[in-house]
Amino acid sequence: MKKPSEVFIEPRRAVGIRDEKIYGHFLEHFHRQIYGGIYAPDSPLADERGFRKDVIDALKEISPAIIRWPGGCYVSAYHWKDGVGKKRQPAYDKAWRVEETNEFGTDEYIDFCRQLQTEPYICTNAGSGTQEEMSDWVEYCNLKNEGKWAKLRIENGHTEPFAVKYWSIGNENYYDSEIGAKSLEEWGRYVKEAAKMMKRVDPSIELLAASTADLDWNINLLREAGEWLDWISIHDYWDVLDQKNEPSDYETCMVKSLRTGEKIAKAKNILGSLGYLGKIRIAFDEWNLRGWHHPNINSKTEDYLTPRDKNDINSTYTMAVFTGGFLNECLRNCDVVGMANFAPTVNTRGMIYTHENGIVLRPTYFVFELYTKYMGDTVVDSWVLGNDTFEAEKDGTTTEIPALDIAATIDSQEKNLRVSMVNKHPDQKAEVSLHAFAIENYSSVKIYTVWGESKDAFNDIGINQVKILENTLVLNSTAQQTIELLPHSVNVLVFCR
Ligand code: AHR
User: Fold this and answer.
1) Model pTM?
2) Residue 232 burial by CB count (10 A; 0-12/13-18/19+): exposed, middle or buried?
3) What pLDDT digit, counting tens, does each position of 356-371 carry?
4) pLDDT by residue (tens digit) across 124-136?
5) Ligand 1: distance of its center to the CA of 134 in Å?
6) What span, in angstroms and rounded, lies between the C-alpha atoms of 470 and 489?
7) N or C terminus of the chain with fewer C-beta within 10 Å?
Protein backbone atom coordinates (compact mmCIF):
# COMPACT_ATOMS: atom_id res chain seq x y z
CA MET A 1 0.00 0.00 0.00
CA LYS A 2 1.58 3.25 -1.11
CA LYS A 3 2.06 5.91 1.60
CA PRO A 4 0.25 9.20 0.90
CA SER A 5 2.41 12.13 -0.19
CA GLU A 6 2.70 14.53 2.73
CA VAL A 7 1.83 18.14 2.01
CA PHE A 8 3.10 20.81 4.40
CA ILE A 9 1.84 24.37 4.29
CA GLU A 10 3.19 27.18 6.45
CA PRO A 11 0.59 29.98 6.22
CA ARG A 12 2.71 32.19 8.46
CA ARG A 13 5.57 32.32 5.97
CA ALA A 14 4.66 34.50 2.99
CA VAL A 15 6.71 34.00 -0.19
CA GLY A 16 5.24 37.13 -1.76
CA ILE A 17 2.19 38.72 -3.31
CA ARG A 18 1.33 37.32 -6.73
CA ASP A 19 0.74 39.92 -9.42
CA GLU A 20 -2.54 39.05 -11.16
CA LYS A 21 -0.77 39.79 -14.48
CA ILE A 22 0.63 36.23 -14.27
CA TYR A 23 -2.82 35.23 -15.57
CA GLY A 24 -2.28 37.44 -18.63
CA HIS A 25 -2.92 36.84 -22.32
CA PHE A 26 -1.41 37.42 -25.74
CA LEU A 27 -3.09 37.97 -29.11
CA GLU A 28 -1.22 38.29 -32.39
CA HIS A 29 -2.20 39.10 -35.94
CA PHE A 30 -1.66 35.49 -36.95
CA HIS A 31 -4.12 33.10 -38.62
CA ARG A 32 -7.55 33.43 -36.87
CA GLN A 33 -6.63 35.07 -33.58
CA ILE A 34 -7.83 38.56 -34.51
CA TYR A 35 -9.88 38.23 -37.72
CA GLY A 36 -12.30 35.36 -37.15
CA GLY A 37 -11.20 35.15 -33.55
CA ILE A 38 -12.00 38.10 -31.31
CA TYR A 39 -13.07 40.31 -34.26
CA ALA A 40 -15.66 39.17 -36.79
CA PRO A 41 -17.88 42.13 -37.75
CA ASP A 42 -19.80 40.04 -40.32
CA SER A 43 -20.66 37.33 -37.81
CA PRO A 44 -24.20 37.25 -36.31
CA LEU A 45 -22.38 36.55 -33.04
CA ALA A 46 -20.59 39.93 -33.14
CA ASP A 47 -21.61 43.08 -31.28
CA GLU A 48 -21.91 46.52 -32.85
CA ARG A 49 -18.12 46.95 -32.56
CA GLY A 50 -17.41 43.72 -34.42
CA PHE A 51 -16.23 41.74 -31.38
CA ARG A 52 -17.46 38.18 -30.85
CA LYS A 53 -19.85 38.47 -27.89
CA ASP A 54 -19.34 34.82 -26.92
CA VAL A 55 -15.57 35.36 -26.80
CA ILE A 56 -15.95 38.55 -24.75
CA ASP A 57 -18.29 36.76 -22.30
CA ALA A 58 -15.95 33.76 -21.95
CA LEU A 59 -12.95 36.03 -21.37
CA LYS A 60 -14.79 38.11 -18.77
CA GLU A 61 -15.26 34.88 -16.77
CA ILE A 62 -11.48 34.52 -16.36
CA SER A 63 -10.75 38.22 -15.69
CA PRO A 64 -7.74 38.75 -17.96
CA ALA A 65 -5.51 41.23 -16.11
CA ILE A 66 -3.53 42.16 -19.22
CA ILE A 67 -3.50 41.38 -22.94
CA ARG A 68 -0.34 41.78 -25.05
CA TRP A 69 -0.81 42.80 -28.74
CA PRO A 70 -0.16 42.91 -31.80
CA GLY A 71 2.75 40.40 -31.83
CA GLY A 72 4.95 38.35 -31.74
CA CYS A 73 6.84 38.08 -34.99
CA TYR A 74 4.09 40.10 -36.67
CA VAL A 75 5.03 43.27 -34.84
CA SER A 76 8.60 43.35 -36.19
CA ALA A 77 7.35 44.55 -39.56
CA TYR A 78 4.15 46.32 -38.39
CA HIS A 79 3.68 50.05 -38.72
CA TRP A 80 1.01 51.19 -36.33
CA LYS A 81 0.12 54.33 -38.31
CA ASP A 82 -1.34 52.10 -41.07
CA GLY A 83 -3.85 50.86 -38.51
CA VAL A 84 -5.44 54.09 -37.33
CA GLY A 85 -7.70 56.66 -38.95
CA LYS A 86 -10.75 56.62 -41.15
CA LYS A 87 -8.92 55.26 -44.23
CA ARG A 88 -6.87 52.17 -43.35
CA GLN A 89 -3.97 51.29 -45.61
CA PRO A 90 -3.72 47.52 -46.22
CA ALA A 91 -0.19 46.28 -45.75
CA TYR A 92 1.72 43.18 -46.69
CA ASP A 93 2.60 41.35 -43.47
CA LYS A 94 6.20 40.32 -44.08
CA ALA A 95 6.34 38.23 -40.91
CA TRP A 96 3.56 35.86 -41.92
CA ARG A 97 3.35 36.56 -45.71
CA VAL A 98 -0.31 37.56 -45.83
CA GLU A 99 -2.18 40.81 -46.47
CA GLU A 100 -3.12 42.71 -43.33
CA THR A 101 -6.21 44.86 -43.94
CA ASN A 102 -5.43 47.01 -40.89
CA GLU A 103 -9.15 47.06 -40.15
CA PHE A 104 -8.20 46.11 -36.59
CA GLY A 105 -5.70 48.57 -35.20
CA THR A 106 -4.84 50.45 -32.02
CA ASP A 107 -8.28 52.00 -31.48
CA GLU A 108 -10.06 48.67 -31.89
CA TYR A 109 -7.54 46.96 -29.59
CA ILE A 110 -8.03 49.57 -26.87
CA ASP A 111 -11.81 49.24 -27.26
CA PHE A 112 -11.46 45.45 -26.88
CA CYS A 113 -9.41 45.89 -23.70
CA ARG A 114 -11.95 48.34 -22.31
CA GLN A 115 -14.75 45.82 -22.95
CA LEU A 116 -12.85 43.36 -20.78
CA GLN A 117 -11.60 45.95 -18.27
CA THR A 118 -8.12 44.62 -18.92
CA GLU A 119 -4.77 46.41 -19.13
CA PRO A 120 -3.52 46.93 -22.67
CA TYR A 121 0.11 46.02 -23.27
CA ILE A 122 1.56 47.10 -26.63
CA CYS A 123 4.61 45.42 -28.15
CA THR A 124 6.42 47.75 -30.55
CA ASN A 125 8.29 47.20 -33.81
CA ALA A 126 12.01 47.01 -33.06
CA GLY A 127 12.54 45.10 -36.27
CA SER A 128 11.87 47.36 -39.27
CA GLY A 129 10.59 50.15 -37.02
CA THR A 130 12.35 53.12 -35.49
CA GLN A 131 12.58 54.43 -31.96
CA GLU A 132 10.69 57.51 -33.13
CA GLU A 133 7.83 55.38 -34.49
CA MET A 134 7.58 53.74 -31.04
CA SER A 135 7.52 57.07 -29.20
CA ASP A 136 5.00 58.44 -31.70
CA TRP A 137 2.79 55.48 -30.72
CA VAL A 138 3.11 56.50 -27.06
CA GLU A 139 2.16 60.07 -28.08
CA TYR A 140 -0.89 58.77 -29.94
CA CYS A 141 -2.05 56.71 -26.97
CA ASN A 142 -1.04 58.70 -23.94
CA LEU A 143 -0.68 62.44 -24.59
CA LYS A 144 -3.71 64.61 -23.94
CA ASN A 145 -3.51 66.71 -27.12
CA GLU A 146 0.08 67.83 -27.55
CA GLY A 147 1.66 67.18 -30.95
CA LYS A 148 0.21 65.70 -34.09
CA TRP A 149 -0.21 62.09 -32.93
CA ALA A 150 -2.39 62.91 -29.93
CA LYS A 151 -4.36 65.26 -32.16
CA LEU A 152 -4.79 62.41 -34.65
CA ARG A 153 -6.25 60.24 -31.86
CA ILE A 154 -8.71 63.00 -31.06
CA GLU A 155 -9.53 63.39 -34.76
CA ASN A 156 -10.20 59.63 -34.80
CA GLY A 157 -12.86 60.14 -32.19
CA HIS A 158 -10.97 59.50 -28.96
CA THR A 159 -10.69 62.71 -26.94
CA GLU A 160 -9.28 61.11 -23.83
CA PRO A 161 -5.84 59.44 -23.84
CA PHE A 162 -5.82 55.62 -23.81
CA ALA A 163 -3.36 55.60 -20.89
CA VAL A 164 -1.46 52.52 -22.07
CA LYS A 165 0.91 51.69 -19.23
CA TYR A 166 2.82 48.66 -20.54
CA TRP A 167 5.06 48.91 -23.60
CA SER A 168 7.58 46.40 -24.90
CA ILE A 169 10.52 47.37 -27.08
CA GLY A 170 10.70 44.56 -29.61
CA ASN A 171 9.64 40.96 -29.72
CA GLU A 172 12.32 38.30 -30.30
CA ASN A 173 14.98 40.40 -31.99
CA TYR A 174 17.55 37.92 -30.74
CA TYR A 175 16.37 35.29 -33.26
CA ASP A 176 17.71 35.43 -36.83
CA SER A 177 14.22 34.46 -38.00
CA GLU A 178 12.81 37.74 -36.63
CA ILE A 179 12.49 40.57 -39.13
CA GLY A 180 15.00 43.24 -38.15
CA ALA A 181 16.94 40.86 -35.89
CA LYS A 182 19.64 42.60 -33.85
CA SER A 183 23.04 41.53 -32.59
CA LEU A 184 23.59 41.53 -28.86
CA GLU A 185 25.97 44.46 -29.30
CA GLU A 186 23.29 46.49 -31.15
CA TRP A 187 20.40 45.60 -28.89
CA GLY A 188 21.31 47.37 -25.67
CA ARG A 189 21.93 50.70 -27.36
CA TYR A 190 18.85 50.37 -29.57
CA VAL A 191 16.65 49.75 -26.51
CA LYS A 192 18.18 52.65 -24.61
CA GLU A 193 17.50 55.11 -27.42
CA ALA A 194 13.92 53.86 -27.76
CA ALA A 195 13.38 53.97 -24.00
CA LYS A 196 14.67 57.55 -23.77
CA MET A 197 12.19 58.79 -26.36
CA MET A 198 9.22 56.77 -25.05
CA LYS A 199 9.77 57.86 -21.44
CA ARG A 200 10.25 61.47 -22.51
CA VAL A 201 6.71 61.28 -23.94
CA ASP A 202 5.26 59.58 -20.88
CA PRO A 203 7.58 58.89 -17.92
CA SER A 204 4.80 56.93 -16.20
CA ILE A 205 4.88 54.02 -18.65
CA GLU A 206 6.47 50.69 -17.71
CA LEU A 207 8.98 49.44 -20.26
CA LEU A 208 9.81 45.87 -21.20
CA ALA A 209 12.46 44.74 -23.65
CA ALA A 210 12.85 41.57 -25.63
CA SER A 211 15.13 39.40 -23.61
CA THR A 212 15.97 35.76 -23.45
CA ALA A 213 17.53 33.76 -20.68
CA ASP A 214 20.97 34.26 -22.22
CA LEU A 215 23.81 35.78 -20.26
CA ASP A 216 25.53 37.73 -23.04
CA TRP A 217 22.30 39.12 -24.47
CA ASN A 218 21.17 40.31 -21.06
CA ILE A 219 24.51 41.65 -19.88
CA ASN A 220 24.61 43.94 -22.91
CA LEU A 221 20.94 44.85 -22.62
CA LEU A 222 21.04 45.58 -18.90
CA ARG A 223 24.37 47.39 -18.92
CA GLU A 224 23.18 49.72 -21.69
CA ALA A 225 19.48 50.08 -20.92
CA GLY A 226 18.82 48.53 -17.49
CA GLU A 227 18.21 51.89 -15.85
CA TRP A 228 15.31 52.50 -18.27
CA LEU A 229 13.62 49.09 -17.90
CA ASP A 230 10.95 47.84 -15.53
CA TRP A 231 10.73 44.32 -17.02
CA ILE A 232 12.59 41.88 -19.20
CA SER A 233 10.47 39.75 -21.47
CA ILE A 234 11.11 36.02 -21.95
CA HIS A 235 9.22 33.39 -23.99
CA ASP A 236 9.00 29.62 -24.11
CA TYR A 237 7.11 26.92 -25.98
CA TRP A 238 8.14 23.48 -24.75
CA ASP A 239 6.60 21.31 -27.50
CA VAL A 240 8.10 22.90 -30.61
CA LEU A 241 5.76 22.29 -33.57
CA ASP A 242 6.48 25.12 -36.03
CA GLN A 243 7.63 22.79 -38.81
CA LYS A 244 6.09 19.43 -37.88
CA ASN A 245 2.64 19.30 -36.32
CA GLU A 246 3.24 16.13 -34.28
CA PRO A 247 2.16 17.05 -30.73
CA SER A 248 3.98 15.13 -28.01
CA ASP A 249 2.08 12.58 -25.99
CA TYR A 250 1.00 13.11 -22.39
CA GLU A 251 4.04 11.50 -20.74
CA THR A 252 6.47 13.47 -22.92
CA CYS A 253 4.63 16.69 -22.03
CA MET A 254 5.02 15.80 -18.36
CA VAL A 255 8.77 15.43 -18.90
CA LYS A 256 8.69 18.88 -20.47
CA SER A 257 6.73 20.19 -17.48
CA LEU A 258 9.85 19.68 -15.36
CA ARG A 259 11.54 22.50 -17.29
CA THR A 260 9.02 25.31 -16.80
CA GLY A 261 11.25 27.01 -14.22
CA GLU A 262 14.51 26.88 -16.18
CA LYS A 263 14.34 30.22 -17.98
CA ILE A 264 12.92 31.94 -14.90
CA ALA A 265 15.87 30.77 -12.80
CA LYS A 266 18.41 31.86 -15.43
CA ALA A 267 16.81 35.26 -15.93
CA LYS A 268 16.51 35.78 -12.16
CA ASN A 269 20.18 34.95 -11.62
CA ILE A 270 21.24 37.36 -14.38
CA LEU A 271 19.09 40.14 -12.88
CA GLY A 272 20.59 39.40 -9.49
CA SER A 273 24.19 39.35 -10.69
CA LEU A 274 23.71 42.76 -12.33
CA GLY A 275 21.98 44.25 -9.30
CA TYR A 276 18.53 44.56 -10.87
CA LEU A 277 16.57 42.17 -8.64
CA GLY A 278 13.82 44.21 -6.99
CA LYS A 279 13.97 46.82 -9.76
CA ILE A 280 13.32 44.79 -12.91
CA ARG A 281 10.82 41.93 -12.98
CA ILE A 282 10.33 39.07 -15.42
CA ALA A 283 7.42 39.07 -17.86
CA PHE A 284 7.01 35.59 -19.31
CA ASP A 285 4.94 37.29 -21.99
CA GLU A 286 4.64 34.38 -24.38
CA TRP A 287 4.24 30.86 -23.06
CA ASN A 288 2.38 27.72 -24.10
CA LEU A 289 3.14 24.04 -23.93
CA ARG A 290 2.48 23.79 -27.63
CA GLY A 291 4.37 25.94 -30.12
CA TRP A 292 2.45 27.27 -33.10
CA HIS A 293 2.54 25.41 -36.42
CA HIS A 294 3.67 27.60 -39.35
CA PRO A 295 5.99 25.66 -41.66
CA ASN A 296 7.61 26.76 -44.94
CA ILE A 297 7.58 30.48 -44.11
CA ASN A 298 10.63 31.07 -46.31
CA SER A 299 9.76 28.49 -48.96
CA LYS A 300 9.48 29.46 -52.66
CA THR A 301 7.28 26.49 -53.52
CA GLU A 302 5.80 24.91 -50.38
CA ASP A 303 2.35 25.86 -49.12
CA TYR A 304 2.83 27.95 -46.00
CA LEU A 305 -0.79 28.97 -45.40
CA THR A 306 -3.08 25.93 -45.12
CA PRO A 307 -0.81 24.07 -42.67
CA ARG A 308 -1.70 26.80 -40.15
CA ASP A 309 -5.19 25.31 -39.90
CA LYS A 310 -3.58 22.40 -38.03
CA ASN A 311 -3.18 24.74 -35.03
CA ASP A 312 -6.96 24.48 -34.70
CA ILE A 313 -7.27 20.70 -34.34
CA ASN A 314 -9.13 20.53 -31.03
CA SER A 315 -8.31 16.91 -30.26
CA THR A 316 -4.71 17.87 -29.54
CA TYR A 317 -5.70 20.18 -26.72
CA THR A 318 -4.96 18.20 -23.57
CA MET A 319 -2.55 20.58 -21.93
CA ALA A 320 -4.44 21.56 -18.77
CA VAL A 321 -2.05 19.66 -16.46
CA PHE A 322 0.98 21.37 -17.98
CA THR A 323 -0.76 24.75 -17.59
CA GLY A 324 -1.46 24.14 -13.90
CA GLY A 325 2.19 23.30 -13.34
CA PHE A 326 3.35 26.43 -15.15
CA LEU A 327 1.03 28.73 -13.19
CA ASN A 328 2.32 27.13 -9.98
CA GLU A 329 5.85 27.92 -11.18
CA CYS A 330 4.85 31.58 -11.55
CA LEU A 331 3.26 31.58 -8.08
CA ARG A 332 6.37 30.02 -6.50
CA ASN A 333 8.44 32.73 -8.25
CA CYS A 334 6.06 35.59 -7.54
CA ASP A 335 8.97 37.61 -6.10
CA VAL A 336 10.35 38.11 -9.61
CA VAL A 337 7.72 36.90 -12.12
CA GLY A 338 5.08 39.62 -12.34
CA MET A 339 3.51 38.85 -15.68
CA ALA A 340 2.86 35.81 -17.87
CA ASN A 341 0.86 35.86 -21.10
CA PHE A 342 -0.70 32.68 -22.45
CA ALA A 343 0.10 32.55 -26.17
CA PRO A 344 -2.38 32.94 -27.64
CA THR A 345 -5.79 33.24 -26.07
CA VAL A 346 -8.10 32.66 -29.01
CA ASN A 347 -7.57 30.04 -31.76
CA THR A 348 -4.14 28.84 -32.92
CA ARG A 349 -2.96 27.08 -29.72
CA GLY A 350 -5.38 29.15 -27.62
CA MET A 351 -7.74 28.27 -24.80
CA ILE A 352 -10.82 29.40 -26.75
CA TYR A 353 -11.63 28.06 -30.23
CA THR A 354 -14.15 29.97 -32.34
CA HIS A 355 -16.35 28.53 -35.09
CA GLU A 356 -19.23 30.05 -37.00
CA ASN A 357 -21.89 28.94 -34.49
CA GLY A 358 -20.05 29.44 -31.23
CA ILE A 359 -16.92 28.66 -29.24
CA VAL A 360 -15.18 25.66 -27.72
CA LEU A 361 -13.54 26.08 -24.32
CA ARG A 362 -10.35 24.04 -24.41
CA PRO A 363 -9.02 22.47 -21.14
CA THR A 364 -6.55 25.29 -20.43
CA TYR A 365 -9.46 27.71 -20.20
CA PHE A 366 -10.81 25.86 -17.15
CA VAL A 367 -7.42 25.99 -15.43
CA PHE A 368 -7.38 29.78 -15.85
CA GLU A 369 -10.93 29.88 -14.53
CA LEU A 370 -9.95 28.03 -11.35
CA TYR A 371 -6.79 30.06 -10.70
CA THR A 372 -8.31 33.48 -11.40
CA LYS A 373 -11.47 32.72 -9.40
CA TYR A 374 -10.17 30.71 -6.45
CA MET A 375 -6.42 31.12 -5.84
CA GLY A 376 -5.38 33.74 -3.31
CA ASP A 377 -3.10 36.75 -3.69
CA THR A 378 -0.53 35.96 -0.98
CA VAL A 379 1.72 33.00 -1.79
CA VAL A 380 2.80 31.07 1.32
CA ASP A 381 5.41 28.41 1.85
CA SER A 382 4.53 24.82 0.99
CA TRP A 383 6.39 21.63 0.29
CA VAL A 384 5.82 17.92 -0.33
CA LEU A 385 7.51 14.98 1.37
CA GLY A 386 7.38 11.51 -0.13
CA ASN A 387 6.08 12.78 -3.45
CA ASP A 388 4.90 9.83 -5.50
CA THR A 389 6.66 9.56 -8.87
CA PHE A 390 6.02 7.88 -12.20
CA GLU A 391 8.32 7.04 -15.08
CA ALA A 392 8.03 8.39 -18.59
CA GLU A 393 9.89 6.80 -21.48
CA LYS A 394 11.00 8.89 -24.46
CA ASP A 395 13.57 7.97 -27.12
CA GLY A 396 15.08 5.36 -24.85
CA THR A 397 15.39 7.73 -21.91
CA THR A 398 13.43 7.13 -18.73
CA THR A 399 12.55 10.17 -16.64
CA GLU A 400 11.17 9.97 -13.11
CA ILE A 401 8.46 12.59 -12.66
CA PRO A 402 7.13 13.78 -9.27
CA ALA A 403 3.36 13.40 -9.49
CA LEU A 404 2.32 16.24 -7.21
CA ASP A 405 2.95 19.91 -8.01
CA ILE A 406 1.54 22.37 -5.47
CA ALA A 407 1.27 26.06 -4.68
CA ALA A 408 -0.34 27.46 -1.55
CA THR A 409 -1.92 30.90 -1.18
CA ILE A 410 -3.96 32.93 1.28
CA ASP A 411 -6.75 35.20 0.13
CA SER A 412 -6.05 38.47 1.95
CA GLN A 413 -9.74 39.45 1.87
CA GLU A 414 -11.28 36.17 3.01
CA LYS A 415 -8.15 35.31 5.01
CA ASN A 416 -8.41 31.65 4.07
CA LEU A 417 -6.15 29.08 2.51
CA ARG A 418 -6.36 28.22 -1.19
CA VAL A 419 -4.07 25.53 -2.52
CA SER A 420 -3.43 24.32 -6.04
CA MET A 421 -2.54 20.65 -6.34
CA VAL A 422 -1.72 19.24 -9.76
CA ASN A 423 -1.61 15.46 -10.03
CA LYS A 424 0.53 14.76 -13.09
CA HIS A 425 0.23 10.99 -12.80
CA PRO A 426 -1.25 9.69 -16.08
CA ASP A 427 -3.42 7.00 -14.54
CA GLN A 428 -3.19 6.90 -10.75
CA LYS A 429 -4.97 8.90 -8.10
CA ALA A 430 -2.77 10.83 -5.66
CA GLU A 431 -3.25 10.20 -1.97
CA VAL A 432 -2.35 13.46 -0.22
CA SER A 433 -1.93 13.81 3.51
CA LEU A 434 -2.44 17.38 4.73
CA HIS A 435 -0.84 18.23 8.03
CA ALA A 436 -3.23 19.37 10.72
CA PHE A 437 -1.45 22.62 11.66
CA ALA A 438 -2.18 24.00 8.23
CA ILE A 439 -5.88 23.23 8.35
CA GLU A 440 -6.75 23.38 12.04
CA ASN A 441 -8.96 26.45 11.65
CA TYR A 442 -11.04 25.03 8.83
CA SER A 443 -14.10 22.80 8.95
CA SER A 444 -14.36 21.92 5.28
CA VAL A 445 -12.61 22.23 1.95
CA LYS A 446 -14.17 22.81 -1.45
CA ILE A 447 -12.21 21.03 -4.19
CA TYR A 448 -12.53 22.33 -7.75
CA THR A 449 -11.04 19.93 -10.29
CA VAL A 450 -10.33 20.32 -14.01
CA TRP A 451 -10.68 16.80 -15.31
CA GLY A 452 -11.48 14.52 -18.22
CA GLU A 453 -11.79 10.73 -18.15
CA SER A 454 -8.71 10.22 -20.30
CA LYS A 455 -5.34 11.94 -20.00
CA ASP A 456 -5.94 12.82 -23.68
CA ALA A 457 -9.43 14.19 -23.14
CA PHE A 458 -10.40 17.28 -25.10
CA ASN A 459 -13.37 19.46 -26.00
CA ASP A 460 -14.62 20.13 -29.50
CA ILE A 461 -17.83 21.12 -31.24
CA GLY A 462 -20.44 18.88 -29.60
CA ILE A 463 -17.78 17.16 -27.47
CA ASN A 464 -17.34 18.07 -23.79
CA GLN A 465 -14.91 15.65 -22.21
CA VAL A 466 -13.15 18.15 -19.92
CA LYS A 467 -14.99 20.18 -17.33
CA ILE A 468 -14.75 21.49 -13.76
CA LEU A 469 -15.89 19.08 -11.02
CA GLU A 470 -16.81 20.35 -7.53
CA ASN A 471 -16.56 18.41 -4.29
CA THR A 472 -16.77 19.39 -0.63
CA LEU A 473 -14.89 17.51 2.08
CA VAL A 474 -15.59 17.87 5.79
CA LEU A 475 -12.26 18.19 7.65
CA ASN A 476 -11.30 16.37 10.77
CA SER A 477 -8.76 18.93 11.88
CA THR A 478 -7.59 17.08 14.93
CA ALA A 479 -5.68 14.64 12.80
CA GLN A 480 -3.96 14.50 9.47
CA GLN A 481 -6.42 14.72 6.64
CA THR A 482 -6.06 12.52 3.56
CA ILE A 483 -7.36 13.82 0.27
CA GLU A 484 -7.59 11.86 -2.98
CA LEU A 485 -6.82 13.62 -6.27
CA LEU A 486 -7.89 12.20 -9.61
CA PRO A 487 -5.20 11.19 -12.13
CA HIS A 488 -4.04 13.89 -14.63
CA SER A 489 -6.02 16.54 -12.75
CA VAL A 490 -5.65 20.19 -11.76
CA ASN A 491 -7.21 20.90 -8.38
CA VAL A 492 -7.77 24.09 -6.40
CA LEU A 493 -8.71 23.55 -2.75
CA VAL A 494 -10.56 26.39 -1.01
CA PHE A 495 -10.57 25.91 2.75
CA CYS A 496 -13.67 27.12 4.62
CA ARG A 497 -14.15 27.82 8.32
O1 AHR B 1 4.99 30.86 -33.22
C2 AHR B 1 4.54 32.18 -32.98
C3 AHR B 1 5.68 33.00 -32.58
O4 AHR B 1 6.34 32.46 -31.46
C5 AHR B 1 5.42 34.44 -32.14
O6 AHR B 1 4.99 35.29 -33.15
C7 AHR B 1 6.82 34.76 -31.66
O8 AHR B 1 6.88 35.84 -30.78
C9 AHR B 1 7.25 33.45 -31.01
O10 AHR B 1 8.49 33.04 -31.48
Assistant:
1) 0.97
2) buried
3) 999 999 999 999 999 9
4) 999 999 999 999 9
5) 20
6) 13
7) N
